[in-house]
Amino acid sequence: MLGMCRGRRKFLVASLALLFIPALTWLYLSVGSFQVKPLPLSPLEALSSTPVGGAGERQALELRVRVVEEENRALRRELSRPPRSPSAQLPSNNHRGNQSRTHSEEGTGDNESQKAVTVGNSSDCVRHPVVDKCETIHVAIVCAGYNASRDVVTLVKSVLFHRRNPLHFHFITDSIAQQILSSLFHTWMVPAVRVDFYDADELKSEVSWIPNKHYSGIYGLMKLVLTKTLPSDLQRVIVLDTDITFATDIAELWAVFHKFKGQQVLGLVENQSDWYLGNLWKNHRPWPALGRGFNTGVILLLLDRLRKLRWEQMWRLTAERELMSMLSTSLADQVIHWNSPKKLRVKNKHVEFFRNLYLTFLEYDGNLLRRELFGCPSEADHNSENLQKTLSELDEDDPCYEFRRERFTVHRTHLYFLHYEYKPSSDNTDVTLVAQLSMDRLQMLEAICKHWEGPISLALYLSDAEAQQFLRYAQGSEVLMSRGNVGYHIVYKEGQFYPVNLLRNVAMRHVNTPYMFLSDIDFLPMYSLYEYLRKSVVQLDMANTKKALVVPAFETLRYRLSYPKSKAELLSQLDMGTLFTFRYHVWTKGHAPTNFAKWRTATTPYRVQWEADFEPYVMVRRDSPEYDRRFVGFGWNKVAHIMELDAQEYEFVVLPNAFMIHMPHAPSFDITKFRSNKQYRVCLKTLKEEFQQNMSRRYGFAALKYMTAENNS
């Protein structure tokens, strides 16, 4: 792993390697003697000209395995010796804890056993290698799908935490991972970090011809084509798996490139698994490897040399030859990566250290990693510059400064935190329920999923630690795991206000249906509302008209409610006092225009007019206006949106057989602040007046009614 140096121990835990590797071994692949005829990638493949699968080849393999095992034993004996004097140490530009003992340093010897590799290690702790302060470190990662996009964030956090150099991430992704990671890095806004994406779908044809049984599928083979995929002027790159965690500066790994000599082009680390030794069971014949083989979770690639050596042709011809007998690749999971929750329970003498290290970065606040690298010029980030300019124009002495600042805060956002599947309907009537929530409303998710079978888009306002709690909660819920059409979008906490309208906008932007039902997390829609709304789309010609379909809102004060299965049952409970029209006793104006008296007997949709403070729950087209971000926490966040819809000439149409019920819960922190803090109420009033003035400027004479209505209310 990273960061331990104990010279007198039997197994040296080296300074840069993968998790749980007790002895670090670097492989430098020498290709000075390679010709483009039979193209051996290791001595195992060059030992014999016997046809593949012949007895001679097997004997040669067994002989080579014994030779490598003897080399490993000799290496371990060397590691167990006391440290030598400083005069025997390597120069300072060598990687800490990594001293080469070469069989053929340049890889040009004629002896087959010395042809392709040099294996080495060190028992000394030498000084940190020197990497130029502002040198950009390039990192390539293959990442595909929802789960890998989530896992890779922990790796990135660990790299950012320790780094002192500019970073350039090269992500080879499918369309899903690109959408998720591009949004994440765009909103993360980490200085001196550049991110580029390469379409993995365009590379599939390069490796899809190789039969593969590994759990990573075809994406695990895409590292083979990095010389062709990455920019032609990129000379070196560190290639990482998504499930790696760093415990020290990645620059120490980058410095190992200075140890490469002659025709050495690859840096790898030896496996600790016995898989490739081929003796786990009778007739066990794994993919050919040198001894235990070398793990590709971390790779150093000298791209310019590989291209000159025609790497593309080398690996293709070798793979074709081996597949004649192996039939498919079957890669082992040789080291402890964090690609399974079960691996947190692995027994190992270092397990507590590594587990805690991993869990620390898993829940680490990513906002703390937005730190500048002083003294290094960075590329101009226009988004960051515009944001800083906007914030500098705000008056910090303004009593409402924090409210105004929140409007421009960029919240780190992780889209589709869990797996998501949606198949568009053929009739173009599909509707997505849109809502937002924080950790204290998590218990509502299962109930909503039971009431609404259609697509759902949710924005969750969580810290990094809370996001992991949510993940465990969701993965432990049969109800949530049975639903693939729910999009969970994490907006990470920052600042003192609950950015309710930003959350709504995030959920709205990732609606994949033509229509959306704008709800709140503490409302349960009637059981058949999804299908009812889809029928209303056709009945009311929503595709060709600007309508907002109002779903009447009710509430109960009972935590246990026998949910009405029809309008008749709801009216009965309303008459019995089990249900009430929503907020009738504290905020009548919010839903009074719905005209509940008319709704009781209505059998057809009816139109209502906008009135001051009207804030119904509506279904609209996906292209409807977003919510105004200036309203945070409690107060006027929905009122302003409904006013915007009215200004854009939407018709408000009440549905006669639709309803939703608000479930009781403890008061939110924001409503408590509104009620107890006078300055909070003063600032909200100021923001309302500014919003109305903006409406007048945008909509002219037609918007005067909003100011008049406010003055009369």
UniProtKB/TrEMBL annotation:
Entry GO MF terms: glucuronosyltransferase activity; xylosyltransferase activity
Q: Where in the cell is it found?
A: Golgi apparatus membrane
Name listed for the protein in its UniProt record? LARGE xylosyl- and glucuronyltransferase 1
Q: Which UniProt keyword terms apply here?
A: Glycoprotein, Glycosyltransferase, Golgi apparatus, Membrane, Multifunctional enzyme, Signal-anchor, Transferase, Transmembrane, Transmembrane helix
Q: Which residues form the signal peptide?
A: none
Lineage of this protein's species? Eukaryota, Metazoa, Chordata, Craniata, Vertebrata
Where does this protein have compositionally biased stretches of type Polar residues?
Answer: 89-101, 110-120
Reactions it catalyzes = 3-O-{beta-D-GlcA-(1->[3)-alpha-D-Xyl-(1->3)-beta-D-GlcA-(1->](n)-4)-beta-D-Xyl-(1->4)-Rib-ol-P-Rib-ol-P-3-beta-D-GalNAc-(1->3)-beta-D-GlcNAc-(1->4)-O-6-P-alpha-D-Man}-L-Thr-[protein] + UDP-alpha-D-xylose = 3-O-{(1->[3)-alpha-D-Xyl-(1->3)-beta-D-GlcA-(1->](n+1)-4)-beta-D-Xyl-(1->4)-Rib-ol-P-Rib-ol-P-3-beta-D-GalNAc-(1->3)-beta-D-GlcNAc-(1->4)-O-6-P-alpha-D-Man}-L-Thr-[protein] + UDP + H(+); 3-O-[beta-D-GlcA-(1->3)-beta-D-Xyl-(1->4)-Rib-ol-P-Rib-ol-P-3-beta-D-GalNAc-(1->3)-beta-D-GlcNAc-(1->4)-(O-6-P-alpha-D-Man)]-Thr-[protein] + UDP-alpha-D-xylose = 3-O-[alpha-D-Xyl-(1->3)-beta-D-GlcA-(1->4)-beta-D-Xyl-(1->4)-Rib-ol-P-Rib-ol-P-3-beta-D-GalNAc-(1->3)-beta-D-GlcNAc-(1->4)-(O-6-P-alpha-D-Man)]-Thr-[protein] + UDP + H(+); 3-O-{(1->[3)-alpha-D-Xyl-(1->3)-beta-D-GlcA-(1->](n)-4)-beta-D-Xyl-(1->4)-Rib-ol-P-Rib-ol-P-3-beta-D-GalNAc-(1->3)-beta-D-GlcNAc-(1->4)-O-6-P-alpha-D-Man}-L-Thr-[protein] + UDP-alpha-D-glucuronate = 3-O-{beta-D-GlcA-(1->[3)-alpha-D-Xyl-(1->3)-beta-D-GlcA-(1->](n)-4)-beta-D-Xyl-(1->4)-Rib-ol-P-Rib-ol-P-3-beta-D-GalNAc-(1->3)-beta-D-GlcNAc-(1->4)-O-6-P-alpha-D-Man}-L-Thr-[protein] + UDP + H(+)
The Gene Ontology biological process terms listed for this entry are: protein O-linked glycosylation via mannose
Any GO CC annotation of this UniProt entry = Golgi membrane
The record describes its membrane topology as:
Single-pass type II membrane protein
